[in-house]
Specification:
This protein is α/β, with parallel strands linked by helices. Helix content is 43%, strand content 14%. It binds uridine-5'-diphosphate.
Amino acid sequence: MFEVNVTARSAEPFAELLGPERVVALQRVSEEIRGLLGAHAVFNVSSTATGGGVAEMLRSLLRYARGLGILARWAVIEGPPEFFRITKRLHNAMHGCAGDGSPLGAAEAALYEQVTKQNAVALDALIRPEDVVVCHDPQTAGLIPHFVCKGMRVVWRCHIGHDQVDPEVELAWNFLRKYVEQAPYSVFSRQSYAPSWLHHKQTIVLPPNIDPFSAKNQFMDEATTRAILFDVGLVGGPRGDAPAVFSREDGSVGRVDRQAEVVRVGPAPSWKTPLVVQVSRWDTMKDPLGVLRGFTECLAPDIPRDAALVLAGPGVRTVADDPEAPQVLRSVETYWRQLPDSLRRTAHLVQLPMEDTEENAAIVNALQRHATVVVQKSLREGFGLTVTEAMWKRRPVIASAVGGIQDQIQDGVDGLLLRNPEDPREFANALRRVLSDEALAERLGRAGFERVRDEYLGITSLENWAAVVRLLFS
Ligand code: UDP
């Protein structure tokens, strides 16, 4: 177990986007929350400090909470690979997928219990009775009874789920129920993710959020975007003169290092080539293989505007809590290698550096911003922050009508939804439509930006969490 340091950041810049009254109201709410908490902390416990939407959101939420004077902290649990294999199995089951189909029986339950208990005991050194503890996702559900016993105010925040009743989901709930039902409140991203046995009074629904001022989402002009992508080898020349810079959280200027560890298979597309981009973990639920097949089998040979595909994900060596990633990447790469030359040239596989630095976030920012179309062809999706991030960057998004993506995109208004994510032709047709109609692309991008501004920025999330803390103290 270790604690993650998050630097405080002022919420003042939100005034530019949403008006000063909103910030003043938030400051007032924070004062009330500080009063309720007294000397106590809001302690978040998750399973990873890097990679994926949970880490992304926590960092953003915590930095503004701290800027508002709330003692918000974050610890990450640790465990052996076998523990993370079990929790990945649980994660898949909660999405209604068998994954590798391995059992979730007594042996798995015993190891899960043992590792979560060890972490809970280690956390006793950091978390004090009467602190608020927010446990994130199935990995940390096992810690709930320990914290409840010690008198802490506990919330379970579940970021994933499945819209339908499903035997796999039931399996996961059978495993987790005895832990989850002990938390006075559980927070889900969608109402349909809450299990039927949880009393409705214990259930809260909150959408996730992005930080518009982080290195991942801050404004970046075209010349800078180009310089960053060129320097890390994601697009070919000419480079232009702009420096590859971004604004750091502390207000200083950050530079993206030419040597950033980007691993690319095949030559880089030229800056002028329109890009179809999916940025996602290497996970079958994100369907990277389906994206590659849809693009190369169904869109080729007459790819509109000679667009190219970029499938980008984290460097697989670095992801501790995602043991399936190397195998998924391998299967995508094997498929890519077997493509005829002419098609292989249209598709690019990229491993991005995943160490959670602002430099690396700026690379993702540049890639999403440079995309002509962003896709998220997930077969399952908890919420889909990559969709939010792309909408914020005014990119037209084509994404599957699954999980939280359905809440974010109104089909034809602020993006296009794929009704059957398994169908590569529907995917290719949507791509053809957006690539060939610039007015449509522009309209979807603009509406997407407005939607995110109004509903999915960190300030809304802070207001929502303030309401949860109030409930815990009522
Ligand atoms: N992400 C990233 N680099 C990658 C892949 C993903 O920084 O190579 C980020 C992405 O920008 C987003 C988060 O990880 O902020 C993924 O969140 P999402 O909700 O889309 O999916 P999750 O990974 O949580 O299932």
